[in-house]
Write a structure and sequence with these properties.
Elements (H helix, E strand, L loop, with lengths): L7 E7 L24 H21 L3 E7 L14 E4 L3 E4 L13 H10 L4 E4 L12 H4 E4 L4 E5 L6 H11 L2 E5 L16 E3 L3 E4 L7 H12 L4 E4 L2 H5 L6 E6 L5 E8 H6 L2 H8 L3 E5 L2 H4 L5 H4 L1 E2 L17 E3 L19
Parallel strand pairs: 1-2, 4-5, 5-16, 7-8, 10-11, 13-14
Antiparallel strand pairs: 1-15, 3-4, 6-7, 9-10, 12-13
Organism: Nocardioides psychrotolerans
Protein name: Amidinotransferase
InterPro entries: Amdntrnsf_FN0238
C-alpha cells in the first residue's frame, strides 16, 4: 500500500460540458470549442471521454465512484478535486472556490457516500472564506506529498497562502509555497498542471519557478525521500504532462500495482527516457480526453482520490460519527455539507 496512491476515486459525469467563461481570464490552458461544433456535440463527446476515463481505471483495478450531474449551470463539475480532498485518518476537506459559478459543485451526496463506505471522522469546510475573497482550490491549488507531509502550492488568487497555512495546520502538512510563471510571465493558475508527485517519482516543471533558490529548495524537498525527478518543459506542461496522478490498481490475481493516470496528449508529449523513468515505478494509463482538456484541465483534475479506510462489508453501522469542524456549515446554495452525526 502507498499513502500517496489511492485505490479508489470519485468522478463526476457531467451531462452538460462547456469550457467555463468565468475561468477563462486566468486559465491560460483553456481553449474555445472548435468553430461550428454545437453544444450538444461538445457535451456528447465529453461524456464519452468521462466514461472512457472511468472504464480505463476500472480495467486497471481501481475502484471508481461515478456521480451523474444533470445540472446545466455547473460547467466545471467534471473537476471535483478543486472542492474536495480526503486524507488518512478519516479526514475530509471542503474548499473555497474562486469562480462563483463553481461553488455549487459541492455535493452532500458525495460526502454521504464517503461516510457510508469509508471511515470518516472529521470534515473541515473552508468554503465560508469565499465572501472574504479567500480561495484554496483543493488539490488543484495544492499538490500534496502524503509521504513527507508537504503541501506544494504555486501562489495565485486561487491559492491563498493564509488558508494554505490553515489547511496545513489542520491536516498536518508543511506548506511549500512558491511563485510559478510561464515564459510570458503569466502565473500558473493551478499547481497540479505543473507538478505531479508519486511514491517513487515526481514530475515537475522546475523551470517555471523563477526564483532559483526556491527552485532548488523544491527540488531538494521532493528528492529527500529518494524520488526520481522527471523535469518537464513548459510545452509539456501545456500538453498536460504535469496533470497526472498516481493511483493503486489491482491485478486479476489480486496483487496491487501502481498506476500513473494521465491523458493521451500528456503521454504523447513525454520523451522516451521520461516514459522509461516513470514506468520504472508505475504503469502508465493514458486516456484520450481532448474535449475535456478544452476547459484547461486534464485527467488529474477529474479525479478526487479517496485516501480513506474502507468500511468492512459486515460493518452494520450505517453512518460513522463525524466531527464537524464548522468553518462553514453550508454550501453556497444552502445545502448542508457538514453535520455532526450522533452515533447513539
Amino acid at each position: 500500500m502507498s499513502a500517496q496512491a489511492p485505490s479508489a476515486v470519485i468522478l463526476i459525469r457531467a451531462a452538460r460540458f462547456v469550457p467555463n467563461a468565468a475561468t477563462a481570464a486566468d486559465n491560460a490552458f483553456q481553449r474555445e470549442v472548435p468553430e461550428g461544433q454545437s453544444q450538444a456535440a461538445t457535451s456528447t463527446r465529453a461524456v464519452a471521454e468521462m466514461d472512457g476515463v472511468a472504464q480505463a481505471l476500472r480495467d486497471a483495478g481501481v475502484t471508481v465512484h461515478v456521480f451523474d450531474d444533470q445540472d446545466h449551470t455547473r460547467p466545471d463539475s467534471v473537476f471535483p478535486n478543486n472542492w474536495l480532498s480526503t486524507h488518512a485518518g478519516g479526514k475530509i476537506a471542503v474548499y473555497p472556490m474562486y469562480a462563483s459559478n463553481r461553488r455549487h459543485e459541492r455535493r452532500a451526496d458525495v460526502l454521504e457516500l464517503l461516510k457510508s463506505h469509508y471511515r470518516v471522522q472529521t470534515i473541515v469546510d473552508y468554503s465560508g472564506l469565499e465572501p472574504d475573497g479567500i480561495f484554496l482550490e483543493g488539490t488543484g491549488a495544492m499538490v500534496l506529498d502524503h509521504v513527507s507531509r508537504v503541501a506544494y502550492a504555486a501562489r495565485s488568487h486561487r491559492a491563498d497562502t493564509h488558508v494554505l497555512e490553515r489547511f496545513c495546520t489542520d491536516f498536518g502538512y508543511e506548506p511549500m509555497a512558491f511563485d510559478a510563471v510561464d515564459s510570458a510571465s503569466v502565473p500558473v493558475y493551478h499547481t497540479n498542471v505543473m507538478a505531479c508527485i508519486g511514491t517513487r517519482v515526481a514530475m515537475i516543471a522546475l523551470e517555471m519557478i523563477p526564483d532559483v533558490a526556491r527552485r532548488a529548495e523544491v527540488r531538494e524537498r521532493l528528492a529527500v525521500t529518494g524520488r526520481t525527478i522527471v523535469e518537464l518543459t513548459e510545452q509539456q506542461i501545456r500538453d498536460f504532462a504535469g496533470n497526472a496522478v498516481e493511483l493503486r490498481g489491482r491485478m486479476p490475481d489480486g496483487r496491487s500495482r501502481p498506476l500513473m493516470a494521465m491523458s493521451a496528449r500528456a503521454r504523447g508529449s513525454l520523451r522516451p527516457d521520461q516514459v522509461t523513468t516513470i514506468e520504472e515505478s508505475c504503469e502508465i494509463v493514458a486516456v484520450d480526453i481532448p474535449t475535456i482538456e478544452l476547459a484547461g484541465g486534464s485527467v488529474r483534475c477529474m479525479i478526487a482520490g479517496v485516501h480513506l479506510d474502507r468500511r468492512p462489508t459486515d460493518d452494520l453501522e450505517p453512518t460513522p460519527a463525524v466531527e464537524a469542524i464548522d468553518e462553514n456549515p453550508h454550501s453556497a446554495d444552502g445545502q448542508d455539507l457538514v453535520r455532526a452525526v450522533d452515533p447513539s
